[in-house]
Design a protein that fits this description.
Number of domains: 3
Low-confidence stretches: none
Helix content: 40-55%
Order of helices and strands: HHHHHHH
Strand content: under 5%
Largest sheet: none
Oligomer: single chain
Mean pLDDT: 78
Length: 170
């Protein structure tokens, strides 16, 4: 019920469901209810077992003796799985540290941050290339000159609004 319905029902990948079913069969079974049941006899760092204590304080003491990090062998993995995990984690951390370091400026020590350099480049190179701001009244006057085909200009009012190019320009 736990592996297939409660938790397993939320797992969509077939291989992940299979792995979870195997873990469930290993960790949740009738043997867990027997005294001193040991989950894995191969683990040497810590003996994971169900204690047969009756006092609450002894359960707490046993829990406090558990290691803060479990070895991969308790999950049925090769001991190298931990090495692979830590190597990947270290490489990701180094990548982040390199990415967040300030970059040297190529401007000969201008002392500007990368953001300031980009802002300065935009102001010097791109802003002068922009056309001058337009005045809407001038645009309307020019649109009146571009009347377009006779069928599109209103014959009575002479309005230019229905000409497709003028609609686009407006």
């Amino acid at each position: 019920m736990i592996a297939e319905a409660q938790y397993g029902g939320r797992i969509t990948d077939g291989l992940d469901r299979e792995l979870f079913a195997d873990y469930s069969a290993r960790w949740i079974n009738e043997n867990c209810l027997t005294q001193n049941y040991c989950f894995d006899y191969n683990v040497t760092e810590f003996n994971y077992h169900i204690p047969d204590y009756l006092e609450h304080i002894r359960f707490v003491e046993y829990i406090n003796k558990m290691p803060s990090n479990d070895t991969p062998t308790i999950f049925g993995l090769n001991p190298n799985a931990d090495l692979t995990f830590r190597l990947k984690e270290s490489l990701e951390m180094i990548t982040v540290l390199v990415d967040i370091q300030p970059k040297d400026s190529s401007g000969g020590g201008s002392g500007l941050s990368r953001e300031e350099q980009v802002k300065e480049k935009i102001e010097k190179e791109l802003l002068p290339k922009l056309p001058a701001d337009f005045v809407m009244l001038d645009v309307i006057d020019r649109m009146k000159v571009l009347r377009g085909p006779k069928g599109l200009v209103d014959a009575v009012t002479g309005k230019y609004d229905t000409v497709p190019l003028n609609i686009f320009l407006r």
